[in-house]
Amino acid sequence: MVADPARSGLLRTPHKENSVVAIDSAGVFSPRLKIWRDELIAWGKTLFSAAVYATLIVTFVFQIARVEGQSMAPTLADQDRLIVNKFAYEVGSPQRGDIVMLYYPVDPSKSFVKRVIAEEGDDVRIVNGHVYVNDMPMVDDFVAPEYRSHEDFGPLRIQNGYYFVMGDHRNNSSDSRDWGVVPKKYITGRVQLRWWPIPNARVF
């Protein structure tokens, strides 16, 4: 007796074969998908780690800053981009001649860039625009002749924990001559590099 194909289930065979083919297809492609998935996970972890490290570096080690104004000309110009080493004064102290970023003592919400002229314990005075530290004339060849001032100031002894700062554009800078000495805790870092504009890039 010939079985009815519809009743015997023979017509289901193509469906079974299709199922087998589908499984085989998954078997062929799943290793590739696994590799791609693993690659994406690895890249994700790498990018996440890089973002964490970058955040830590920017928060605790380096900071990007932009100069606004001409008070440090000709050493720094308006819109110069800087990298500030925030860790430098965690392990050391500002030195005479350092270019530093600091909070404005009158309004700490603002930040300035100035040069350290005198350290704690120093005596500073200015005679006709010429700076003397501990009765020795300061070597200030970084000040352009047309930017020199001609005022008198001091003498002033810098108390412990404070610094006397000035801009290199002596006749166009608001600095310690106007608003007094700066506490060390307000000096947030040392200017390490001018990276923009690129033709004027320079390490300080």
Word description of this protein:
- By secondary structure, the chain is α+β, with helices and mostly antiparallel strands.
- It folds into 2 domains: 15-60; 62-199, Umud Fragment, subunit A.
- The chain has 4 helices and 12 strands.
- The protein has helices spanning 5-8, 13-60, 88-91, 176-179, and strands spanning 62-66, 81-85, 99-104, 107-118, 123-127, 130-133, 136-137, 153-157, 162-166, 182-183, 187-196, 202-203.
- Strands 1, 2, 3, 4, 9, 10, 11 and 12 form an 8-stranded antiparallel β-sheet that branches. A 4-stranded antiparallel β-sheet has the order 7-6-5-8, with no helix packed on it.
- A hairpin with a 2-residue loop joins β5 and β6.
- It is elongated and about 80 Å long.
- 23% of the residues are buried.
- Residues 1-28 have low confidence and may be disordered.
Quick tags:
204 residues; alpha+beta; Umud Fragment, subunit A; 8-stranded antiparallel beta sheet; 4-stranded antiparallel beta sheet; 31% strand; disordered N terminus
